[in-house]
Specification:
With about 450 residues, this protein is α/β, with parallel strands linked by helices. It is built from 14 helices and 20 strands. It has three domains: about 1-75 and about 125-250, inorganic pyrophosphatase (n-terminal core) (Alpha-Beta Complex); about 80-120, no CATH class; about 255-455, Roll (Diaminopimelate Epimerase, Chain A, domain 1).
């Protein structure tokens, strides 16, 4: 890793204008790392811009210098129109906008201008280095990547991340899946930068930002990704002046009334698929409207569901976001279940214990049924629910569940979420929910297969 850090410092040394980008939607780790890198690079004389496609969630607005993040920027070089005035002297210049056209009017003092005197070119790129933090794939940069795809091949990219599903998209990939958070990698990099520039860079603000990343990604040191380095690095940051109690107070002990209402709706929407050891809940756009809240206010509710879900392997929270995305946050409680493997079915990724995905233009009514059934099929295969006794147990395990406030789900694939049959036969067993109970229509055991593969269209 020290060799990679040396390569990163080389690129930083040669760069002047640097673009720093956290993943979207942002969390404590991505935001803390982005602003920490921004502040450190400014101290060594670099021009730095930090941008995020999504707004900063209210819960993280207490972080120092968080206002330095912008969600608007102009990444592309200028388009330059050049006029050769050797044959005629310019008298005046004006421009007029007519619908989708711009007319540039050049008046000559003597002589006249012709088309062959006009040439076109692009200016230099505004940035000479991009640093992404806590980003497993470029698509997680949201609209900033979608609108500027060529930019990421024209400019060197430093990819700093800790997700096992990282796409290794950078010119330099500083990826350590054993790290509990990206903040720990940034801490190590900034320590090396201090030695390189013989300058103390990690002040109270940077230490607080990085500690927020460690604390939020480890669930305040409760998640299974917590390791001895998490504690030793946190001790370093506290020694550097990190405000640990401010982080705990704002992230875990302060909740807006709208957040509490939203959490109540999450709890009331819980579904328990007991035979499959699977628990899920849903936040619809109607829930957000009714509670006067936003999707980012769910915070750590998925971890609360996980800690109160006995005899459960998988916990899933589906959220219909205001910007037209359906997102899934997943946690697993069993060693044999890999959350990133399940998230990959829907184009997502993450860690073995925590992962997520998002579907552009998705809704629970349109896509929810396929998602839930795919996860249940995964559990059927993993738990080997193929014997007569198993299916009788499935049939006999009736679960009381509340009624979701959403439209009825049709059991056919939508145009948005396509299915491609696997090479193997699939089960014809169907699930019914009647009188708020889950039952099986067909108790006859059939061959179980991995089911279907999902393809998402943007």
């Amino acid at each position: 890793m020290k060799n990679i850090e040396k390569q990163i410092l080389g690129l930083i040394h040669n760069a002047q204008s640097i673009l720093v980008m956290p993943s979207s939607p942002p969390d404590g780790d991505s935001l803390g790392c982005a602003v920490a890198v921004y502040l450190a690079l400014r101290q060594i004389g670099k021009n730095v811009t930090v941008v995020c496609a999504d707004p900063v969630p209210d819960v993280f607005k207490f972080l120092p210098m968080i206002s330095s993040i912008t969600n608007e920027f102009t990444p592309t070089p200028d388009f330059i129109i050049t006029l050769d005035t050797a044959g005629a002297e310019l008298s005046s210049l004006e421009s007029k906008v007519e619908e989708s056209k711009i007319n540039i009017i050049l008046t000559a003092k003597n002589g006249r201008f012709s088309a062959d005197q006009v040439s076109f070119s692009h200016g230099e790129n505004r940035y000479d280095l991009i640093i992404t933090v806590d980003t497993a794939a470029l698509q997680q940069l949201g609209r900033f990547y979608e609108d500027n795809v060529p930019l990421f091949s024209e400019i060197p990219v430093i990819n700093i991340d800790h997700h096992a599903t990282n796409d290794q998209f950078g010119r330099i990939n500083y990826v350590d899946v054993m790290s509990s958070s990206t903040a720990e990698l940034v801490l190590s990099l900034l320590e090396s930068m201090e030695q390189e520039y013989n300058q103390e860079l990690i002040n109270e603000d940077i230490a607080t930002l990085l500690l927020a990343g460690v604390i939020t990604d480890t669930g305040s040191f409760q998640n299974s990704n917590t390791n001895p380095k998490s504690f030793s690095n946190s001790a370093k940051l506290i020694k550097r002046g990190a405000h640990q109690q401010d982080i705990i107070q704002h992230v875990y002990k302060t909740k807006h009334l709208s957040t509490l209402r939203l959490w109540g709706r999450v709890l009331s929407n819980i579904r328990i698929e007991k035979p499959y050891k699977f628990l899920y809940s849903v936040i619809t756009r109607k829930d957000l409207l009714d509670t006067g809240s936003r999707a980012d206010e769910t915070g750590s509710i998925v971890d609360e569901l996980m800690s109160n879900a006995p005899d459960t392997d998988i916990v899933l929270l589906l959220k219909e976001r205001e910007d037209g995305l359906l997102t899934g946050s997943m946690r697993t409680l069993t060693e044999g279940v890999d959350a990133s493997e399940i998230a990959a079915f829907f184009g997502g990724g993450g860690h073995a214990k925590a992962a997520g995905f998002r579907i552009k233009g998705g809704t629970f009514a349109k896509d929810g049924h396929q998602i839930i059934e795919k996860i249940k099929q995964y559990q059927i295969n993993r738990l080997n629910l193929v014997s007569q006794e198993d299916f009788e147990q499935v049939s006999n395990d009736s679960i009381n569940v509340p009624e979701l406030q959403t439209t009825e789900i049709k059991q056919k694939p939508s145009h948005h979420l396509h299915t491609t049959p696997s090479d193997q036969p699939t089960t014809t067993e169907e699930t019914e929910i009647t009188d708020n109970k889950i039952s099986k229509k067909d108790k006859t055991p059939k061959k179980i297969t991995p089911g279907v593969k999902y393809h998402f269209e943007n």
